[in-house]
């Protein structure tokens, strides 16, 4: 199907809101799942949007955007991927194949936005010197434009050229590639899981990793059930660690190490 | 314009409305002008502006305090409101004399708060609810996604209590709560790790569709693998990726590209398929 002008408009607005949401209220979170979901609603195919969002979500589980490090922007990837999957009618694997490179390219624009705001910072400095609080406030708020436009413009442009270009890509795609993309879509979640395990103090909690695996792989307990099991274990741990005698490992160190490690690794 | 009112000694009281205004501003502005040079400095300044204007009638004081607040600052936006609240309580009582205290307080607390906030709000909550949402989403079921949305709304509401808490409790609370906070963080990590353990067999979808034929007997590779352990291929892939991430020149972006290529190649040759 061809994309309608109002769909392009709504998806562009979603892209603008996406980054603003992340740095303010955090309702849609800085992860792809909910953006795929909403893009799916806009495109009239909720299921496709959800599956695209979910697949990307699993790839970036552990990739935090904190401390100023840029991460692959799979939120934009989810929006573009969902839109193109519906336009092309080629399904999820095609969408993932597009969303990943889009997400990787978008990192550059995130860097640009964070850099551009330095310009406003220096204007703020100048107006502080003059005691002009109104202009100080105004120049801080201007930061919203580099942030929002860095996402909205690329999405708008990609959707605008979308119809014809997507059809050309679809027609040119050989069979082995779509077969390969299907397999890649299946295994890409390992990336998110591995990054997450690197971020968390996994070695200290490895027994719980095994318990979670056993519950799901052997006992076939659904995810919500495993989460409840984990909650029970967490409560037990919290109560037990309250006793001074059992509370002698240096937790502070472990956290610090994990955190810095993550930042160091993801800054590129 | 130098103010006619030079009696800066006169104590100005901050009201509930001032706290609400700061809270509201922190929510919307803390990272709105985030930049590489001083990160969240502008957001902090914007949050404090009405308070500063109320407390410092002398223009010189106002300018100096604005300068101080526009210095490097970076923490987790979800929990940073607590620091703002403490700051407001101190400046309300001590005024300009508190300049160094406040600067030290901000610098000293931004790290610990970032650690707790980034771990719990930034990673553990998205791990738990993002995993459940993605697990259901892969089947086209939006329940998990909506559940996550509701959790985010709840977090948004809870955020609003932190700044007033910081204001009323002041410095003492964070030190007293330090150990408790660590235990809560640990318990949350434990829960997250358990969920991740369950993610491996449920969301990684890979089997080996190869069939070996010796005479009349056809041996399916996947059947053999299943007898060793269910989800052996996903476990091996996760372990491999985890090991790769420990390498010096490896980072998340490179790993994504690598696994994407690996998947395409293995899939194209029919060695790995989506189960």
Automatic annotation (TrEMBL), chain A:
Transmembrane regions: 6-29, 50-69, 94-113, 140-161, 181-200, 207-238
Bilayer topology annotation: Multi-pass membrane protein
Chain intervals for the UniProt region annotation (Disordered): 244-268
Biological-process GO terms, alphabetical: phosphoenolpyruvate-dependent sugar phosphotransferase system
Keywords attached to this entry: Cell membrane, Membrane, Phosphotransferase system, Sugar transport, Transmembrane, Transmembrane helix, Transport
Intracellular or extracellular location(s): Cell membrane
InterPro entries in UniProt: GatZ_KbaZ_carbometab, PTS_IIC_man
Pfam families tied to this protein: EII-Sor
Basic and acidic residues: compositionally biased ranges: 247-258
Main localization, broad class: membrane
Gene Ontology CC entries for this record: plasma membrane
First and last residue of the signal peptide: none
Protein name: PTS sorbose transporter subunit IIC
TrEMBL record, chain B:
Pfam families, per database record: EIID-AGA
Segments crossing the lipid bilayer: 119-138, 144-167, 188-212, 224-243, 255-273
Gene Ontology cellular component list: plasma membrane
GO BP term, pick one: phosphoenolpyruvate-dependent sugar phosphotransferase system
Keywords: Membrane, Transmembrane, Transmembrane helix
Transmembrane helix among keywords: yes
Protein name as annotated: PTS fructose transporter subunit IID
The organism of origin for this protein: Lacticaseibacillus chiayiensis
